[in-house]
Design goal:
Blueprint: E1 4-5, H1 16-28, H2 38-58, E2 66-69, H3 72-87, E3 93-97, H4 102-113, E4 117-121, H5 131-137, E5 142-146, H6 160-166, E6 171-175, E7 192-196, E8 207-211, H7 237-272, E9 278-280, E10 288-293, H8 298-306, E11 310-311, H9 327-331, H10 336-339, E12 342-346, H11 353-375
Parallel strand pairs: 1-11, 3-4, 3-5, 5-6, 6-7
Antiparallel strand pairs: 2-8, 7-8, 9-10, 10-12
Helix pairs in contact: 1-7, 2-7, 3-4, 7-11
């Protein structure tokens, strides 16, 4: 059987155009863009083109609002640690949710160990943050709130604009790594927005951070002063240019791709309901389906499908090797026996109805076989 890939929330296949751009830039514009000679200037021009494309996708008004990074994790770290450093004299209280990516949660745990007071927002059974808790938590000394735009395990979309209204004087950061390409980030009102290339058919090792003009932030990476002195280090020219190419495709295909996601999502859910004792842990028309098959451990089903060249996941890729149930599903108070059976199926623009039919039939066989084996 040919490979069928439904783990696009972990990473996406680089597009043909982005890959070609990467190759061309690597072969012809290999100079350091910080160099003063012509070759360096030509490389810098290509960086500027990519920056303008990312600016367009994020609604940035000037080039200094976009800095390139090595990916979503670094963008999150710079946003959180940099904004807290810049405002440490104004307060020691910061807020996040219990279902954030580890790139955010671990930053908050680090800051907590350094004397900052952290409020971890609860979520309801759908995964949405407790708005009343947020209202009651924001104080005059609250300097930062970080809530992700779309959850990487469930696809749940948080009310970022409403959070901004309640934030008072606090800086609002959102990890939009999963949301990029699925939500119109221009409409999201946040001071800091993290995105990553490899989630939108760009290369790995590249990302960006949107910093709204006027947002207080300090540099946390020191060196040659690149990226307006906020992220030093020689720029990854081919990666950034390929990222720009992928974002250009994303902008052009945005409406078509999201309509396709909705159609594929609805069809996948409809087919999965044919399986006995199936439980959907979230339902948001998009590209992520979090589903459990009661009585079967998620990782067992994952490896059964892997033998058929079908690839899904049991949750976030950063936490994939953990034997514990998902902390995201735990925070949503999903029953433990259901959470143990959870798998994440995530779509891309390259997936098809025929692939869904094939996967559902294999899941049916696998579930039946594994349940028979368990009853013995």
């Amino acid at each position: 059987m040919k490979e069928i890939y439904f783990d696009n929330s972990a990473t996406t296949k680089i597009s043909a155009k982005a890959l070609e751009k990467y190759k061309i830039i690597s072969e012809t514009l290999y100079a350091n863009p910080a160099s003063l000679h012509k070759a360096g200037f030509n490389a810098e021009k290509e960086i500027d083109i990519a920056r303008k494309t990312v600016m367009k996708a994020l609604g940035a008004k000037n080039e200094k609002e976009i800095i390139f990074t090595s990916g979503g994790t670094e963008s999150d770290n710079i946003a959180i640690l940099g904004s807290v450093l810049a405002r440490h004299r104004e307060g020691k209280h910061i807020i996040t949710s219990k279902t954030e990516h580890h790139a955010v949660l671990d930053c908050f745990k680090f800051l907590e160990s350094r004397g900052y007071e952290v409020t971890y927002l609860n979520v309801d059974k759908t995964g949405i943050i407790d708005i009343e808790q947020l209202k009651n938590s924001v104080r005059d000394d609250t300097i930062l709130i970080s809530v992700m735009a779309m959850n990487n395990e469930t696809g749940i979309v948080q009310p970022i604009n409403q959070i901004k209204e309640l934030a008072k004087n606090a800086t609002l950061h959102t990890d939009a790594v999963q949301a990029f390409g699925k939500l119109d980030l221009i409409k999201i009102n946040a001071d800091l927005i993290s995105v990553s290339a490899h989630k939108v058919h760009g290369p790995k090792g590249v990302g960006a951070l949107y910093i709204k003009s006027g947002t207080k932030i300090k540099n946390t990476v020191f060196g040659g002063g690149q990226e307006w002195n906020l992220r030093s280090g020689t720029l990854n020219v081919p990666g950034i240019c390929a990222f720009g190419c992928a974002v250009e495709e994303l902008i052009a295909e945005f409406e078509y791709n999201n309509n396709k996601f909705t159609e594929l999502y609805d069809y996948f859910v409809k087919r999965l309901t044919e399986i006995e004792d199936v439980v959907f842990n979230s339902y948001v028309q998009g590209n992520i389906i979090n589903v459990s098959f009661v009585g079967i451990r998620g990782e067992v089903l994952l490896h059964y499908l892997e033998e058929k060249n079908i690839y899904i996941s049991t949750g976030s890729a950063c936490n994939a090797k953990s034997t514990k149930i998902s902390y995201v599903l735990d925070a949503m108070n999903i029953d433990k026996t259901v959470a143990e059976g959870a798998v994440r199926i995530s779509l891309s623009k390259y997936n098809s109805v025929d692939e869904i039919d094939c996967v559902v039939e294999e899941i049916k066989k696998g579930v039946e076989l594994l349940r028979k084996f368990k009853r013995r």
